[in-house]
Amino acid sequence: MNHTIAIDPQILDEAAEWLMQLHEGASNENTRSACERWRNRSPEHARAWARAELLMNKLGGLPFELAMPTLRRPTNTGRRAAVIKLAVLLAVVPAGWGTWRLIDAKEWTADHHTAVGERRSITLADGTRIALNTATAIDVYFDDRQRTVKLREGEILIQTAPDTAATHRPFSINSIEGNMEALGTRFSARQQDGITHIAVLEGAVRITPKNARSTQHVLQSGQQTSFTNRDIAASTEADDAVIAWLQDMLMADKMRLADFVSELSRYRSGIVRVDPAVAHLLISGAYPVADTDQALAMLASTYPVDAVTRLGGRWVTLIPR
Prior knowledge:
Blueprint: H1 9-22, H2 29-39, H3 43-60, H4 64-71, H5 77-92, H6 97-109, E1 112-113, E2 120-123, E3 129-132, E4 137-142, E5 147-159, E6 171-174, E7 178-182, E8 186-192, E9 195-202, E10 204-209, E11 217-220, E12 223-227, E13 236-237, E14 249-256, H7 257-264, E15 271-274, E16 282-288, H8 292-302, E17 305-310, E18 315-320
Parallel strand pairs: 5-6, 15-18
Antiparallel strand pairs: 1-4, 2-3, 3-5, 4-5, 5-8, 6-7, 7-10, 8-9, 9-12, 10-11, 12-13, 14-16, 17-18
Helix pairs in contact: 1-2, 1-3, 1-5
C-alpha cells in the first residue's frame, strides 16, 4: 500500500470520523460493518483507511496520557476538533509522523517551549534574554563550568549577558548539528532539517560542527550562515528579515510562493499546500504571522491566486485564479 499518494481531504475527514467511532468504546458489529463498507467504496477509501490504521498503530505506541486525549473526546465541539486534527495527521502519515511525534514530545519534556503560532521571551539566571519563535523547544544547563542552551527544535534570538560567576563560563548554544559559542553577542539560531541557520546581529559567534571538530569559523556581526554536522557554508550579509518574527511579521522579497508557504506554515496549525502551477510565483511584502488567515487573504488580494479551504480551515490549497 502506497502511503505517499495524496488523498481527497473529504475522504480523510471521513476516515478520521470512523477512527474516532471505532475507538470511543461504544462501537458494535453494525459500526464495524458500516466502516468496512465505507472502506470498500473505492481504492482511495482503502488507502485512507490504511493510513488510519497506520496512525492508530503509532498512537498506540505513545504513553496513555498522550494518546488517549487525542482519541477519547466527548461528543461536542472538542470532539469535532479532534476529528479535524486526526484528518490533518492522516494527510501527512507517514512522512509527517516523525515531526509531529517529536514536536509533541518536546512540548512535554523541554525546559521551555512554544506551541505552533506562539512566541514568548524568557530571562535566564545570568540575565541572558532568549526569545522563542513558533514551535520551539530548548533546554537550559547552567552549573559552575558552563552556560549552555540546547536548541531542540525551532528558532531563538539570544541576547547574552556578562557572566557574573567567579570563573568564566562560556555561553553556548548546542543544536543537532554542532556548537555555537557566543563571544559577547546578539544572534539568532534556527534548527531546520539537518541544518542550523545562524545570523549575528552584534558581537561574534564561534561555530563548531559536531562531526568536524577541527573545522571552526567565527561569524562576525552583520553576517549569517548555515552549517551541517560536518560543514559550514560561506557567510553572507545578515538580512533583517531573519528576525522579522519579533514584530510578528514574515518578510518576503521575490520569494517563491512555495517557499513562502513553507515559512508561513510554521505559524499555522493544519496544512497549507500550493498548486504546482503557481509554486514558482515570486512574491514580496510583509505578512502577519499572528494572523495567518489575514496573510493568506493578502496573498489572494495581491497575486493571481485563490485560497481554497477544507476541514474547517485546517486544510488550505493555493490555486491559480
